[in-house]
Amino acid sequence: MNPHILSKLKKDHNISYLEDVLLKKDFFSFYINLNDKEKSFYMISGSPSIVGLEDKPVYTVLEIVNQIEPDNTFSEIDGKNLYIQKLTYQIEHLSHELYTFIPFKNKTHDKPIWLYLKFDKDKNNNLVFGQVLRIYDETPSEIIYYQKTHQDPLTKLFTRETLKEHLSKNTHQNNAYGMYLDIDGFKQINDFYGHEKGDQFLITLANFFISRWEHNVIYYRLGGDEFFIYAYEHTKEQIIKRAKQLIYDIEHLNLIAQKHNISASIGIIELCADLSEYNKILDLGDKTMYHAKKQGPGRFAFYNQSNE
């Protein structure tokens, strides 16, 4: 650090860089010992009472997790359990500095308090240091942008952009499949009841998907009445069973579905190292889905070169 600049800050602005900036008194910093079985949070400076925690020197993981607001933008996209698991994994397996937002429960308002934190490891990779850099009472613009990018505004499912990101990052696990799904007869709902009722049908379907969320099954809305399901840790027999169940569930989703014989056509692609590019997967999935649709409503088909 430049001692001249530090002295000038203190003299001209009455600011101690160490106390008022690096370890800002209003916020707090801590460390986690990764070798500890409990992985407790040890306070270094400041007080977490500003975000509703009891003022004490050590916190258990459970105390911190219980303070995280479960109904937040990230959990809506990742799922509540997956969000906590993903955050924990990121912190425990740091390879470089991590900057992230974490929503804490707000005792006075329905909206969470958003903490912007920096995490970093010591040179021996035994300790993780955390520092709260900012605290927001309103949802930060970065979170709003994240939500618009990754969450479909109508259905709250993942978007095309999220699917593209997932496919680019994932080296597919064994037995991974993509399911391109199109609603059979959806136009009848719009024509008979109007587009508002059609939108409500899509929301109902998406809520059904979300209620059946599993760790190895991810749902996306591609647009209109087209959806994509990424499923891994599935045998071919299990993916066939899932396709049949999806068709049955959509046909029996509600009274409108049953009255107008709504169903679904599904194109299934087995994902592998040679087939992991976003545009190619969607193109082949779309063609395979239409191959199934030509056989009549409520059918599914597996991709093979003859479908192209």
Give your account of this protein's structure.
With 308 residues, the chain is α+β, with helices and mostly antiparallel strands. It folds into two domains: 3-145, 2-Layer Sandwich (Beta-Lactamase); 151-307, Alpha-Beta Plaits. It contains twelve helices and eleven strands. The chain has a six-stranded antiparallel sheet with strand order 3-2-1-6-5-4. Strands 8-9-7-10-11 form a five-stranded mixed sheet, sandwiched between helices. Helix 12 links the parallel strand 10 (263-271) and strand 11 (300-302). Helix 8 (186-193) crosses helix 9.
List the helices and strands and how they pair.
Blueprint: H1 3-13, H2 17-22, E1 28-33, E2 41-46, E3 58-59, H3 61-67, H4 73-78, H5 80-92, E4 98-104, E5 113-121, E6 127-136, H6 141-150, H7 160-169, E7 176-184, H8 186-193, H9 195-211, E8 217-223, E9 226-231, H10 236-251, H11 255-259, E10 263-271, H12 278-293, E11 300-302
Parallel strand pairs: 10-11
Antiparallel strand pairs: 1-2, 1-6, 2-3, 4-5, 5-6, 7-9, 7-10, 8-9
Helix pairs in contact: 8-9
Q: What's a concise summary of this model?
A:
The protein has 308 residues and is of the alpha+beta class. The protein contains 12 helices and 11 strands.
> Quick one: overall form?
elongated
Percentage of residues assigned to helices: 40-55%
Number of helices in the DSSP assignment: 12
- Number of beta-strand segments: 11
Average of per-residue pLDDT values: 87
Give start-end ranges of low-pLDDT stretches. none
CATH class annotation of the largest domain: Alpha Beta
When the domains are counted, the total is 2
How does the major sheet shape up?
A: 6 strands, antiparallel
The proportion of residues in beta strands is: 15-25%
CATH topology of the largest domain: Alpha-Beta Plaits
Order of strands, main sheet, comes to: 3-2-1-6-5-4
CATH superfamily of the largest domain: Reverse transcriptase/Diguanylate cyclase domain
GO molecular function, one term: diguanylate cyclase activity
InterPro entries: Diguanylate_Cyclase, GGDEF_dom, Nucleotide_cyclase, Rev_trsase/Diguanyl_cyclase
